[in-house]
Amino acid sequence: MRFPRRPAVIAATAVLALTSCGTGTGSDPGSITLTIAANSIQGGKNSESAAWIKNWVIPEFEKTHQNVKVLFQPSGVDDEQYKTKLALDLKSKAGADVIDVDGIWVGEFAQAGYIKPLAEVGGPAVEQWEGWSQIPQAVQGLGIFDGKKYGLPQGTDGRVLFYNKTLFNKAGLPETWEPTSWQDIIDAGNKLKAAGVPVPIQINAGTAMGEATTMQGVLPLLAGAGAEIYADGKWTGASQAVKDVLGFYQQIYGGSGLGDPKLQQEAKGRDKSFAQFAQGRIGILAESDYFWRSVVEPTAGVAPMKDRDQVVGYAKIPAKQPGAGIRGQDHVSMSGGAVRVLNPFSKNPKLAWELLAFMHSAEATKTQLAGQVRISSRTDVNTEVLTADPMLKYIADEVLPVTAYRPGLAVYPQVSTALQEATAAVVSGKSADEAAAAYQDKLQGLVGGAANVSG
Fold first, then answer.
1. Whole-angstrom Cα distance, residue 398 to residue 94?
2. Where would you tag: which of 107, 130, 171, 226 has the fewest CB atoms within 10 A of its CB?
3. What are the strands of the beta sheet with 230-231, ordered from one edge?
4. Model pTM?
């Protein structure tokens, strides 16, 4: 399921009809009704997910819970409308028992008191669930806020460095490239430049690329410098880590010829970078596995490469130097995705947890994939279904254990824009220190002053 990356502030003035509460008992004596809400609808938005819930989840769960009736509340609206509707429902202590939300909304909903930790709602059975052992700790982070588990992650993704093996061969670089530091990336870029590659390195920068700049560029690099954008209740300001990140951008776009500054400022710059990579004009490009699955996919990709499997290599994003990443890691990544949460106002919270856990069982997860090769949150399922695609298996096995997530707070999209502006300043010729100082000033204005900023 795909959600937008720009969540709105929860407070909404629009008057929307509340979702009918599905947390009560059914009309038959002794029966119980549970409800599932998702922004999916058969024949419309996220149709496959809606069909899975209606045609598989509900009948299969009801088989083993004969006194339970499960209803589906579909939506097929803009994600911001869906978010506002959920907020109004939960604020009124109404809404479905099991709810799909974007992981980026978790912190915002938690701070508003609209959702509570799973164990507080579902009871002791939550921590005893077999599925936790199958979801890597880093992937669990998608549904974690302030150290507490609020949701179960659905599918996810990961960021890596893609590279063109043909160009690497031309530059005398190894076919199996495993950079261990930022300097290794710069060194490879210089060799590609010397070999005549038009754009040696593409790391998204500037505001035209929007959230892709933050997720594919700034945040993985920041993690590689040992910091996260939000930690211990404070936002990261013009710290040494941020200056290091902007300094890396400066090495690429500050006149070295390693990157194309104009590409970062064009309205369709990201799409153009995809096309240029497919044409053999870009040597190294930082992207998510979406690039592999949907951009250079040989038959149906946006910029298809018939020889993708032979020509396109991929490597983990290194920390600035070995051990310098967050959690002392040698490599880093960033991920996104959706989660499912429990309504804290459910009249049947323990049964609601049973339904949620069932929806995230191995059998349910495989059924939802419906034969498609996609990354799930469960290691056992990934081991089984990703054998046909070594790149996605690489993401599941190597990248997800070292990944991190954006903070699910309402002000994050504005902070993200400030980070994009800082990279745009560097691309336009400002120094890393100048860009960091301007970012610090902007950040303080966004998050309520210097007391909420570290570094």
1. 41
2. 130
3. 230-231, 234-236, 453-454
4. 0.85
